[in-house]
Amino acid sequence: MRDKSVKDRHTKHRHPKDEPQKRKLKNDKPVILVVGLTPCMARTMMFERFILGGVNRSESQAEYASGKGVNAVRAICTTNLAASFYLGLTGGDRTYAFLEALKNLGSAYESIDTYPNEIRLCTTIIDQATGVVTELVEEPPAVAKSVAQSLLDSFDRIIDDVDAVLVIGSVPKGLGNRTYKLMIDMAKEAGKLAVVDAAGAALTNALTAKPHVVRINENELLGMVGATAKPSDEAVINAMRAVANQTGGAVVVSRAERSTLVLEFGRVTEITPPEVDVVSGIGGGDVMSGVITAMLACGKPLVEAVVFAQACAADSATTTRSAHFSLNRAKRMVGKIVKRDVGQG
């Protein structure tokens, strides 16, 4: 556990304000603590035809809070299966709009202000003529090393009052790649479900804490084990087995618009979504992580959780806004998803 006597040196934004933590999180549903450290405001712009190097006039635009953590929170809130508590970083003029968006989703939050840093603005360009989706992504700014202590202090104070933890996304420079590992250690010490969706060194370190579930996409998984050739199913399953052997937990690997593979208790299940008219698949993995965590916190089996998460992610791919989906459409899609027992992993 962290030393709670350390004086906090960073401004924190909380919702609801000035209420004891336990009252803040009192809920008849499970509460998911979502840690997302690379927030952004997202702008989606639609073009009848986008001409590279030309003057392009957008016929419709939307701006909303995003980043992997917020996308997962949105998914949790949309399913209404669990309550969410967002812990993350903010800064600059976009902070108010970002936190208002969390409040409107129905999520409690606590954020550490990293002034003079500014919350990123990331833009998605959708060319309706070709169906091509282009992302313009601002890299997250580095933060002061002292932010790590404030973040871990907040995590330590909140963890006893939640049921599950999802750490998701990359870790900004300055925090160090052991941040997620330390959080998973604390979550497991408190007896909480721990789910990780990360990549690179942050994930490699997190795996040493043995999270209960690892949710990762195929490219990230194969990059972690050093695979370079176009992967076969056998190569993906072998890489999943390597991760499961290290953590002792389950592994869920999404493969864009293809099937998702689930490895649990030594068995592999392939889950294939129905074909949909894809507009933008951005944020689909975040949706899956949020829904899987919420379902598990409600006591649902992992395969059932992934089936429902796959349906939510598939519907989100039919919308113009990242990680937005219709709960009713997702529920109707569940019956169209195909499960196949691949056998021993």
Using the 3D structure, state the CATH architecture: 3-Layer(aba) Sandwich
Rounded average pLDDT:
91
Number of helices: 11
**How many distinct beta strands?**
15
Q: Enumerate the strands of the largest sheet in spatial order, edge to edge or round the barrel.
A: 1-6-5-2-9-10-11-12-13-14-15
Which series of helices and strands comes N to C? EHEEEHEHEEEHEHEHEHHEEEHHHE
- Gross morphology is globular
Rg measurement, Å: 19 Å
Helix content: 25-40%
Give unreliable regions as ranges.
1-8, 18-23
For the record, the CATH class is: Alpha Beta
Task: Summarize the biggest pleated sheet.
Answer: 11 strands, mixed
| Strand fraction | 25-35%
CATH topology description: UDP-N-acetylmuramoyl-L-alanine:D-glutamate ligase
Describe the structure.
By secondary structure, the chain is α/β, with parallel strands linked by helices. The chain has a single domain (12-344), classed as Ribokinase (UDP-N-acetylmuramoyl-L-alanine:D-glutamate ligase, 3-Layer(aba) Sandwich). 34% of the residues lie in helices and 26% in strands. It is built from eleven helices and 15 strands. The chain has helices spanning 21-24, 68-79, 95-105, 146-158, 179-189, 200-207, 218-224, 233-247, 284-297, 302-316, 327-334; strands at residues 12-15, 31-36, 40-47, 60-66, 83-90, 108-113, 120-127, 133-136, 164-168, 193-197, 213-217, 250-254, 260-264, 267-272, 338-344. An eleven-stranded mixed beta sheet has the order 1-6-5-2-9-10-11-12-13-14-15, sandwiched between helices. The chain has a four-stranded mixed beta sheet with strand order 4-3-7-8. Helix 5 (179-189) links the parallel strand 9 and strand 10. The longest helix is centred in the last third of the chain and has 15 residues, at 233-247. It starts with 11 loop residues before the first strand and ends with a strand. 46% of the residues are buried.
